[in-house]
Amino acid sequence: MEKLNVPELFGSLVFDERQMKERLSADVFTSLKKTIDENVRLDDQVAEAVAEEMKKWAIEKGATHFTHWFQPLTGVTAEKHDSFITPTKDGGIIMEFSGKELIKGEPDASSFPSGGLRATFEARGYTAWDPTSYAFIKDRTLCIPTAFCSYSGEALDKKTPLLRSMQAVNRQALRVLRLFGNQDVKHVTVSVGPEQEYFLIDQKMFDKRPDLIYTGRTLFGARPPKGQEMDDHYFGVIKPRVAAFMEELDQELWKLGILAKTEHNEVAPAQHELAPIYTTTNIATDHNQLTMEIMQKVAKRHGMVCLLHEKPFKGVNGSGKHNNWSVSTDTGVNLLSPGETPHDNAQFLLFLCAVIQAVDDYQDLLRLSVATAGNDHRLGANEAPPAIISVFLGEELTGILNAIKNDEPYEGVEKVTMKLGVHALPRFSRDSTDRNRTSPFAFTGNKFEFRSLGSSNSIACANIMLNSAVAESLRQYADELEKADDFKTALHDLIRRVIREHERILFDGNGYGEEWVKEATEVRGLSNLRTTPDAMPHLLDAKNKEMLIRQKVFTEAEVESRCEIMLENYNKTVNIEGLTMVDMVRKDYLPAIEEYLYTLSRAVESIKNISPHVKCKYEVSTIEKLTDLTDNILDAVTELEAELAKLKEIGNVMQISFAIRDEVLPRMEKLRDFVDAAEMLTSGKYWPVPSYGKILMSV
Ligand code: ADP
Ligand code: MG
After folding, report:
1. Closest Cα partner for 339 from 353, 330, 355, 351?
2. Atom of ligand 1 nearest to the CA of 325
3. Quick check: 303 pLDDT over 60?
4. From the CA of 475, how far away is ligand 2's center (Å)?
5. pLDDT for position 412
6. How far is the CA of 281 from the centre of ligand 1 (A)?
7. What is the rounded CA–CA span in Å between residue 507 and residue 65?
8. Which of 173, 380, 464, 618 could lock onto 387 through a cystine, CB 3.0 to 4.6 A?
9. Residue 234 Cα, ligand 2 centroid: separation in angstroms?
10. Residue 419: pLDDT above 70?
């Protein structure tokens, strides 16, 4: 086996700190480092020097082009490649790249969604370098991570508000830490480790399915004889072809400085997972976008297709992303890690409370931050966390909070009535924070795991909302505690009050059960926003809008435009799915069933010619059932077409999304049921697309 030098490979396509240190003069390096660490504006001369060295490095690595790499609101990343070449007088060229080109770009932005923020006559937006995320090389192109804004300064991307939300946490967490006497902490960072699920199927199967090609998911397909009920795939042996894919994927990701760590099979057949080591949220977000892109590329090289859709196959587990989230200081303290001393414990509990309150106060924002047409098929479908957001803490931590709430002794190892900041917390073992897989938001020892994210989604949205909401709790705590005469007493009272006021969000039971839906909504008053059209409008609720503006994460215009864009996205997605169904039914399924019916009828005729008294039970009953089904299919497809046509008459995105939820989706479901029933009766030889069984077992 060829030996791989991983440390050498790692980051070899990244202009990281090692490269900066080696190539930049000490002064330039120090300035740049200050920009990265402390968010200080980069001066023009420094930018010029950095650009020059970056270009030299990139050319040495074989790059010919550069691009400002950014994340517009479409959800995918965008890039416009420019080559380094500049003509010289003698007819030749030189390779040039200026500080200006590094710092600012002006892509023609008219075709990116802006939700009305940018009228087309002022179509130009600009991209600005985000020096906190390293430049890297991909396909011979130097990619410079950038934010994307309109000329009037509104964010048109996901990175800008994400960076702002990280700043918000930093601002408020520092205020709180100062109250605990922490003077040495300069900066507080939010970190994320996103676990990414995906499916791998054979390219040949994919090519034969228009639904996968156009929409990323199968819109039809009868249940396979063998699904995931045997549970033999989960953590099972990885097949050689998949292993080869994973090996190459790891290497490609390592070259880009992405900390790919764990690769394993998931629950469903053909489903897998990749987990990176956690890092700063902003970088984790960029890396996750790159990971999804590279996964698809590498799969192609292995004759496979990587499906990132949340629900590529009905009746088979869907794919999500677990967003492992924590807050830590530049002095190396994880603020969600229970401490050793009473003092540390109290600080930990306050940060824990901040998250609990954030999730309770902004359940709707968290829910809508993961709402997409694709993820709607997953949330609440007894395989993924429910659409109801709640927090899992585990038995011991819940016991401790209860004791504080009731001023009762906690019966841990020793029996103590705790006065926070005075008594030590009873130690609790991390492993007892049991894996409640059904919880959407679980404390896992020293981090929270937000599990509702969809597999194809950028993790930016979820983290923007989570960071903002936590910053808001911390702001309220700092406001209150800064005024207190006796910090310890005020802190104790605050924590007790927060537990009392927000305990309704805490739930350790089975989130998949019907009883939970009843209890959550009827007794606890939690929100159950089942679909994207139900969830998204809450972005504009006064409490949400005000909070996001107060935390300086969005402007009012930005919030409004985002709601519009997300709904538009939903509408377009389902509309394409509907049209694809109509197309497949009319061009593929009905003609195929017709052919089979013809064969069957011919068979009956021929058989009866030979032997007139034979009943031909199989043929005749199949013909009867299939013709019934084709009648139903025809009616259902005609109805669906009519509903899709009606959408064009509705002027407002929100109204369209309601019509989709109430009229279009149920009709798609109905049509699908008829077609799937027909699939069960039709000879595989005639069926125009590969079956679920064939696709899922194709690798
Ligand atoms: P678990 O088995 O509890 O899911 P893992 O160690 O497998 O934990 O980690 C899952 C993901 O959580 C990984 O991406 C990991 O890097 C990330 N992670 C671990 N610790 C933290 C932390 N303190 N903050 C954020 N993410 C973390
Ligand atoms: Mg996990």
Report:
1. 351
2. 25
3. yes
4. 29
5. 58
6. 13
7. 52
8. 380
9. 14
10. no
